[in-house]
Amino acid sequence: MTTPAIGVLALQGDVREHLAALEAAGAAARTVRRPEELAGVDGLVIPGGESTTISKLANAFGLMEPLRERVRSGMPVYGSCAGMIMLADKILDPRSGQETVGGIDMIVRRNAFGRQNESFEASVDVAGVGGGPVEGVFIRAPWVESTGADVEVLAVFDGHPVAVRQGRLLATAFHPELTGDHRVHRLFTAMVRSAVR
Q: Residue 68 — φ and ψ, nearest 5°?
């Protein structure tokens, strides 16, 4: 049983919570802020936060192209909330100058469930995650407007996909790292472990 090294993109957002959830899921978790740190991990989490800010900081830190290259070369990546937006090939309503890493053949809508004061929690059944529904924390959450043929929809809420997977890329519109339930992180850690065998 290998212990994969999984980075958390530590430019903005709920980095500490993802680090703790990954450690609890059996990974060696570390922060990633520079290209050389990205080169040293087997997988990566792009956390929630503000997708426009993460996009601008990734460019400022020289990470955007290395991130795209690692995704193209098959590195497993999990994005939650803003991270889902960062993994989308297309944003329906991008802010000026906003870029994505891409990799998942989907179109996402930013802030689809409403603004900060409309945040909520809901039980979500996630395919591939056993043990009953996952408690999803939705904070200015996106949803998936449409997906390509290679995208597997893992969860739907209110008629919209809120968890998807394409190959080694996983994305949720909600924040499992805020609940103390590490099953989504265990799923991702297993994806990384199988990729590095």
A: -60, -40
Given the residues 17, 18, 177, 182, the one annotated as active site: 177
Question: Of 81, 99, 121, 145, which residue is the catalytic one?
Answer: 81
For the whole prediction, is pTM greater than 0.90?
A: yes
- What's the half-sphere exposure (Cβ side, CA atoms, 13 Å) at 73? 10
Q: Which residue has the tokens 């909330």?
A: 81
Task: Tell me the CB-side half-sphere exposure of residue 182, using CA atoms within 13 A.
Answer: 14
Name the catalytic one among 17, 18, 175, 182: 175
**Could you give the 3-state DSSP secondary structure of residue 19?**
helix
pLDDT tens digit sequence for 123-177: 999 999 999 999 999 999 999 999 999 999 999 999 999 999 999 999 999 999 9
Name, in order, each residue with C-beta under 8 angstroms of 159's C-beta and a sequence gap of 6 or more.
none
Contacts of 60 (CB under 8 A, 6+ apart): none
| Residue 51 DSSP SS3 | helix
Residue 17 known to be catalytic = no
Helix (H, G, I), strand (E, B) or coil at 190: helix
Is-catalytic flag, 50? no
Q: Is 160 assigned a catalytic role?
A: no
d(CA 69, CA 196): 17
